[in-house]
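An example makes the point: we print one protein in full, the chain in one-letter code, the fold tokenised, without further comment:
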Amino acid sequence: MIGGVDRQYLCDRLAAGQKAFSDLELAGTDLSRIDFSDITITNCNFDGVNFTASKLNNTVWTRCRAMKTSFKAVDAESAAFSHCNFANTDWAGSRLASASFQDCKLTGADFRESKLLGISFKNVLLVSAYLRGISFRCMTLEGNDFTQADLGGADFRECTMNDCRLNGALLRATQFAGADLRGCDLGRISLNDAGIFKGATISRSQATELLHGFGLTVI
């Protein structure tokens, strides 16, 4: 990692037209309201950084760390994040249309009041994330862990979930009609939860678990 880097250094390099940054140590730096659009960022440490209201459109992030970082109100449409750790990040009010996260950690991430149309997650850890109202309609979700995530009001209609987990997720008013959940670990399904999955396709083993939730034994 390259230390001794600050806000002014980045602004100067951006003004000079630099489009790629790597191996920078920027933990705790104020990087709010800066236009980073169209740049590539690799193996940088942004722990605790303040990116509030910055422009991150079309940026490409690889192997970066940004734990407990503020991405409030950022413009990050069509940004691509791969193999990054964004645990406990705050994305409140951000614009992430068509952004993609692959092989990332977003444990405890807060997407409250964010615009997430067309966002995609693949092999992402979203444990305890706030994703209320998000739409995955007609999408294929692979390898995502939504354990204990807040998915209230989310739209999973006609989506396919492969190798995903919904254990303990908050699913109040969540829609699953037409969804294929056979490749999803639903956890223990209680009688109160059963109606949420109305119209979805589940496997025989999941159906057995559902009946166990009703207190019935399948022989």
About this structure: The longest helix spans residues 204-213. The longest strand covers residues 160-165. The chain is about 10% helix and 15% strand. The radius of gyration is 19 Å.
